[in-house]
Design goal:
Layout: H1 4-24, H2 33-61, H3 65-70, H4 81-84, H5 90-111, H6 117-145, H7 149-166, H8 176-181, H9 189-207, H10 211-215, E1 225-226, E2 232-233, E3 242-246, E4 249-253, H11 270-283
Antiparallel strand pairs: 1-2, 3-4
């Protein structure tokens, strides 16, 4: 039986590596020169955080961190589907940036209490850098929400498009019960999801963006793409809870069913980002720099 801690580490590392790669694609084409620097810096941080988690996974697997990050087949990656999506426009990018980094903050806060000391110890340095990511995301969320009509519209559309898939960041891991029982994961993802909803609902209420939680409250249906045989298949089969307003808060109703990124099921967009991200490593096996 494989160590369930490996699935936890790979989920976090793969999230960071893929979102870092997507962020880096804004370098040179961001709306402002300062954003070329800001998003490049954030992308570098995210990849650096991935290295931390791959390093811990390396100790458990005996595999080189580079091989873990760049040498696996697509169905061996455990990142959430949200992070592999193309950047689209600036409104969508800001929306995903905000939703992802708030979720990552919730995750890191919980893992600071992990019974597995290497993970608990790693969260301190990562959270210090993630504070900047959160500040950047919230600054842009506020700027677009209070900006011209078109900016607010693009932000709203981006949030609605990204919110349903952001729920997939909290898809339960394989053998999650064992991780929780051992204290490695201090609280299950269902509880982390509620903590995240409480956090973003407060931000949305303050900005008059409550409709996002209504219009984007359900995970999107699976996408169907042609296979090499011409048949149709659903690469992303995950469905999850929907979000409802109750009293003064928002709560998830229902459970995750099927399998998504945490189990190696990905969208049609992952093939492109995987090929670009791992191309040099695969083209020059065993190379050192």
């Amino acid at each position: 039986m494989s160590d369930p801690r490996i699935d936890l580490l790979l989920a976090m590392a793969d999230d960071e590596l893929v979102i870092g790669h997507r962020h880096s694609q804004w370098t040179g084409v961001a709306p402002h020169l300062e954003e070329d620097l800001a998003f490049s810096s954030i992308a570098q941080d995210e990849v650096g955080h991935a290295v931390v988690w791959y390093g811990l996974a390396s100790e458990l697997t005996g595999k080189d961190p580079d091989a873990l990050g760049l040498g696996r087949q697509p169905d061996q990656y455990r990142n959430a589907i949200l992070v592999e999506r193309p950047n689209r426009d600036w409104g969508y990018t800001v929306a995903r940036h905000y939703l992802y980094d708030t979720a990552d903050d919730v995750r890191l806060v919980a893992l600071a209490d992990s019974a597995w000391r290497p993970v608990a110890d790693a969260t301190g340095a990562l959270r210090r850098e993630e504070r900047y990511h959160l500040l950047h995301a919230r600054t842009w969320l506020d700027r677009l929400a209070h900006g011209p009509v078109d900016a607010r519209r693009k932000l709203g559309e981006g949030l609605v498009a990204a919110f349903g898939e952001a729920l997939g960041l909290f898809e339960p891991l394989p053998a999650e019960g064992d991780l929780v029982a051992d204290g490695v994961l201090p609280v299950p993802h269902a509880e982390l999801l509620q903590r995240w909803l409480d956090m973003i609902a407060a931000d949305f209420d303050a900005l008059g963006l409550e409709r996002v939680l209504e219009e984007g409250a359900t995970m999107a249906d699976p996408e169907f793409v042609p296979t090499s045989s011409g048949e149709m298949e659903a690469p992303a089969t995950l469905s999850g809870p929907h979000v409802e307003r109750r009293d003064r808060g928002w709560v998830p109703v229902g459970e995750f069913t099927g399998r998504g990124g945490r189990h190696g099921q990905h969208s049609e967009d992952f093939a492109e980002v995987w090929q670009e991200m791992t191309g040099t490593y695969r083209a020059h096996p065993g190379a050192t720099w």
